[in-house]
Amino acid sequence: MATFIYLTAILILCLTPSFLKISSAHKTFFHLWGVPYNLIPFQGVSTEFFLNIIMTLPWGVFLYLFHYRHSWGRTIAYCFLFSLFIEVNQFIWDLLINLGRLADIDDLITNTLGALVGFSLMLLLDYTYFHGLIQQLRLKSPQSLVH
User: Fold this and answer.
1) pLDDT tens, N- to C-terminus, the chain (147 residues)
2) Cα(60)–Cα(83) distance, integer angstroms
3) How far apart are CA 92 and CA 9, in angstroms?
4) Kind plus residue range of the DSSP H or E element containing 36
């Protein structure tokens, strides 16, 4: 249920028109069919940079709780694909209905980083006093519940 609520919140945050004006770094944008996008990483760092990391940190926690034995390569791939899903959808929806969102390489990087930080934090906490709690929170696959 928590994963569903989190994913719904991400969709609302990322795929609806933004009413909050968060300070953003000045960037040079490209346009495709009138839709702006940024392919030049780190033209400037702003509040957005850190908010994207915080926003996707829970995704890394959920990844760890669902399957903590993923290789780092697979974990990075899942984090990257989640971020890519967000950015591609922002571009597509802006193209279709002028959502006012921006597909940004910085967001792709910081969203991936945030999820990796969440996963890494859980990995570290699993070797501390919190190991028992993390064991209880781990999500069980349907196959493991049958046996």
Assistant:
1) 788 899 889 988 888 876 655 556 677 888 888 888 889 898 877 888 899 999 999 999 999 998 878 789 999 999 999 999 999 999 998 888 887 888 899 999 999 999 999 999 999 998 899 888 888 888 765 444 444
2) 11
3) 19
4) strand 35-38
Give 43's DSSP letter.
Answer: S
Q: CB-based contacts of 91: which residues, under 8 Å, 6+ apart? A: 35, 37, 101, 103
DSSP-assigned letter for residue 107: H
| Positive/negative CA dihedral, 62, 68, 71, 72 | positive
Kindly list the strands in the beta sheet with 103-104, ordered across the sheet, starting from the edge strand earlier in the chain: 30-32, 35-38, 103-104
pTM of the model: 0.83
Spatial contact of 76 and 116, defined as CB atoms under 8 Å apart: yes
Say if residues 83 and 10 touch (Cβ distance below 8 Å).
no
